[in-house]
Amino acid sequence: MGTLIRTGVMTNYLKVAQQLSFDPKLLLRKLGLSSAMLADPECLIPGSAAVTLLKESARITQCPTFGLRVADLWQLSDLGVVSVLLTHQRTLREAVATLIQYRHLLNEFLVIRMEDVGKKVIVREEFVADETGTSVQSTELVLGSLSRMCSTLLGAAWHPLSVHFTHDAPPDLRLHRRVFVGKLEFASSFNGVICRAADMDFPNPIADPVMARHAQRLLEGLPGAREPSVVLEVRKAIYLLLPVGRATIEQVAQGLGMNVRTLQRQLESAGMVFSDMVNGVRRDLVVHYMENKSHSLGHIAEALGYSAYGSFVRWFEAQFGMTPSQWRSAKSAKGR
């Protein structure tokens, strides 16, 4: 069945389709899905099907904000038992850390990283698809849901400094301005939010440690609550660490709580080599970046972890048989 997601984040898909006078039955059938699956927040569906569903729905309805519309209707309770655990964390920082810990129960495609930079906190969030590639719709769905979670827990105290998207801005930003608080930054080097550390540590007035422990016990006893494969976790870590130049096996192993040799053994058992995985993620990301004309080639090189532009050009030429400039020229000529 491949990588799975729990449909809690997709629960409002059918409402959005109805708002746009779109009957998705044929599309759902084509993807092996049904309305009943999407209506059940505990149902597990293939992640690739969810990504394609959002992408195709946006195309058919000609609605570039389809994924964000789904997020706009999202409620914390759509996450089921996980929502109880999140609601009763002492601070937003602890809630995000809990979301990171249990994200595999919700969405095996989801990758979140939280890091302190001086008096600020950067929360990077990506939807790391496989054969379906990246998608504006799925990216805005998960970012919109994260924003809704933060505003639900903090209320008026939630004031992120900025919200970042790697894709270009849509023609109409009214929905983005309603869903997201803070400055909108498009064509950015990452997807996520930057906020004040003080906001992340703001006390949650309704936190109840007893309820949190109860919810945690329930989560640990959920049927099928399996840890994701180490291959998927490594791929997601590489996806986030590349833009900041830290996609080394040492950094990834540390993030996964193991030593380098243990990680190498686990990857070898799965028939994988770390350097090949880094190269594979680079290939996935570079096409996405190259197709976005607002990204300069120098910016793309940095986003892929290259400090020297010449190294990026040599890698690109070895992978695609032409320079980045030639690739873009050929792509433009084909589009005319």
Automatic annotation (TrEMBL):
One Pfam family named in its UniProt record: Arabinose_bd
Cellular component annotations (GO), alphabetically ordered: cytosol
Database matches in Gene3D superfamilies: Homeodomain-like
PROSITE patterns listed in its UniProt record: HTH_ARAC_FAMILY_2 (PS01124)
Signal peptide interval: none
Origin organism lineage: Bacteria, Pseudomonadati, Pseudomonadota, Betaproteobacteria, Burkholderiales
Key word Transcription present: yes
GO MF annotations in UniProt: DNA-binding transcription factor activity; transcription cis-regulatory region binding
Domain HTH araC/xylS-type: start-end pairs: 232-330
The protein's name in its UniProt record: HTH-type transcriptional regulator VirS
Species of provenance: Paraburkholderia caffeinitolerans
Keywords recorded for this protein, A-Z: DNA-binding, Transcription, Transcription regulation
